[in-house]
Amino acid sequence: MDDGPPANDCCSICHGRFKVPCQANCSHWFCGDCIMLVWQHGSAVQACKCPLCRRSITLLVPGQAALRDRNDTEVSEVLVKVQRYNRLFGGETSGLIQRMQDLPFFIRRLFRELMDPQRSLPLVIRARVYIAVILSALYTLSPVDIIPEGILGIVGLLDDALILLLCFLHVAAIYRSVLYFRHGGS
Q1: CB 48 within 8 Å of CB 42
Q2: In Å, what is the CA distance from 76 to each residue of 16, 31, 38?
Q3: Pick from 1, 167, 15, 183: which is nearest to 91 by CA?
Q4: 8 Å CB contact between 112 and 1
Q5: What pLDDT score does 12 carry?
Q6: Predicted confidence band of residue 1 (pLDDT cuts 50, 70, 90)
Q7: Which InterPro entries does this chain map to (predicted)?
């Protein structure tokens, strides 16, 4: 399973084949150089907005093909720019709405990484993810609740939904930090 843009897709900025493909936290793919040009033509002191969905891009993750070709000077230059961008904006804490919008991106990538035997997360990160998921599942399935369903009916499910949301936000934050250190914070 190659971690890259869809096979017949093209960069929505230059409308050409991807050169050093990078995926933004909104799940859209761009050429690394193209998205860096978008950022440079805007405000250099804040993260650029996705040209497709207008969400703030706070993390760019290079595709596996770009990482394999990092010895090529042109690819290396683009990866250095992407790494600089991630250092500037990848570690920034964003609001709850931004985190919830990023949640599907991080959960999808994390799930792919957990299922791919070729890629490995550090054992500590895996353990934290599994513990968070198991504890939230146990709480959700247990008859003991902060707001009991037996008394309040469907309203009693609110605490279960809140626990699951907090679990997913925690797991996404853990994985975001992994991606940040892997692609920008080193």
Answers
A1: yes
A2: 20, 13, 19
A3: 183
A4: yes
A5: 92
A6: very low
A7: DUF1232, RNF170, Znf_C3HC4_RING-type, Znf_RING, Znf_RING/FYVE/PHD, Znf_RING_CS
What does the pLDDT average to over 91-116? Answer: 76
Residue 23, strand partner residues: 29, 61
Number of H helices, E strands in the chain: 7, 3
Average pLDDT over residues 83-104: 78
How many residues appear in the chain?
A: 186
User: Whole-prediction pTM value?
Assistant: 0.69
168: Cβ contacts below 8 Å, ≥ 6 apart: 103, 107
Handedness of CA 69, 180, 106, 99 (dihedral sign): negative
| Domain count within the chain | 2
The residue among 92, 118, 133 that closes a domain is 92
Q: Are residues 98 and 88 in the same domain?
A: no
**Contact (Cβ atoms closer than 8 angstroms) between residue 62 and residue 20:** yes
Phi-psi category of residue 27: left, alpha or beta, with phi > 0 → left and psi -120 to 50 → alpha: left
Backbone angles phi, psi at 60, to 5 degrees: -115, 125
| Gap between the Cα atoms of 4 and 19, Å rounded | 11
Name which of 35, 83, 31 is nearest 56 in CA terms.
35
- Residue where a domain stops, chosen among 71, 92, 113: 92
